[in-house]
Amino acid sequence: MSLLGFLFEAVLISLSGVMAPGPMTTVAVGKGSESPHAGALVAVGHAIVEFPLMVAVLYGIGRLLDFPHVQAIIALIGGVFLLVMGIGMVRGARQDQVDATAHPTPAVLAGILVSVGNPYFIVWWATVGAALIMRSVRYGLLGFVSFALLHSLCDLLWSWFLSALSFKGGQFFGQRFQQSIFVGCGVLLLFFGGKLMADGATQLSAQGVF
What we know:
The protein is built from 8 helices and no strands.
């Protein structure tokens, strides 16, 4: 398979993960009430976590993520992050005007937090992502760098699209629509946060930690 053929296949696989509903897509939509470009900044925060993780997986450090204890701890910490962000969104929606101060977490930091605290994202890189990275290095450094950049571009464009769509929808339908979006995204983050904490606690319990 040529490098272009591999990159095309990698983009399709990446999009299947990028476009799946999850904390990052939820944050991109919620932050869209502030700016149509907020999703791009969320993706930048995501990339700050993702690029070092790609390099770590490339050099084999990603095998640490296979340990159940590590995954459980990440799930618990990530659950707390998402709960805090979800509460902030729900509270922000109660204000008379949803604006940049309604949810104080900067978009870049929000992207970092939802990435670090999402064990499913990390497990994806330890499994599917690792397989793609191993295939990319068959084409040398160019293959790895091209794959990393294209994957991040998928994240950027999708998150940007979501926030722009949310922003335009708020302008068209008005303030109540934006508040509804904020509440909906906040509730989803609370759900994801609770689920992560429950998963982490279940894993630790199964291992006899408590």
